[in-house]
Write a structure and sequence with these properties.
globular
Length: 197
């Protein structure tokens, strides 16, 4: 029997909660159906496939993470904005590990759903806006975005995997990493366009 009120949104939230509990790669349609107390076939009225569900989880997570970052960085600039941005990113990754991974994993997302979702677009706007506070312009903006994403994601992924076994706390290293990023962004090296080395 199909539970009354089952919608694509409820299926997506159930999938996102399951991803946080067991990991995104362990989510199956059967597990989501069990979590909702319905038969597997009932889910396909609302989502087309497991890949479609993962795409929906990724969009949900992008919206949630962007809202958290926007709230944290509101009214801030320079180093304050960078630290608030980074801490919100890390907080979301800690609190919602499965959803977070959906935002960092290549997933085929329905273009129609993606076009309606504000999260990914807003994430780009927030990131570029924060970096413009450092006086960066293209192509340096794109390079700086990639550096920040690599640093933030690399740190939280290693942290989640227990990769920081040294007695110095990860928090101390995180603070120093943000100090170093701020210094680098303030003294961004001149572009060497055309130099392939």
């Amino acid at each position: 029997m199909v539970r009354a009120g089952l919608t694509a949104e409820r299926v997506t939230i159930a999938g996102a909660e399951l991803a946080d509990d067991v990991g995104l790669d362990q989510v199956t349609m059967s597990q989501v159906a069990r979590r909702l107390g319905v038969k597997d076939a009932s889910l396909y009225t609302h989502v087309r496939s497991l890949e479609d569900l993962r795409g929906r989880i990724a969009l949900l997570a992008a919206d949630e993470k962007t809202i958290l970052i926007a709230e944290a960085t509101a009214g801030r600039a320079g180093k304050d904005a960078l630290i608030a941005f980074a801490n919100a990113w890390r907080e979301y990754a800690h609190k919602h590990p499965g959803r977070y991974m959906a935002t960092q994993t290549p997933i085929q997302i329905d273009p129609e759903l993606a076009a309606k979702a504000p999260g990914p677009r807003r994430a780009v706007e927030l990131t570029y806006g924060m970096l413009r506070g450092y006086g960066l312009a293209e192509p340096d903006l794109t390079d700086a975005v990639r550096l920040l994403r690599s640093t933030f994601h690399g740190f939280v992924a290693l942290e989640a995997a227990g990769g920081f076994a040294h007695k110095r706390s990860p928090q101390q290293s995180w603070i120093r990493a943000l100090d170093a990023l701020h210094t680098l962004l303030e003294h961004w090296p001149p572009s060497r366009e055309g130099d392939s080395s």
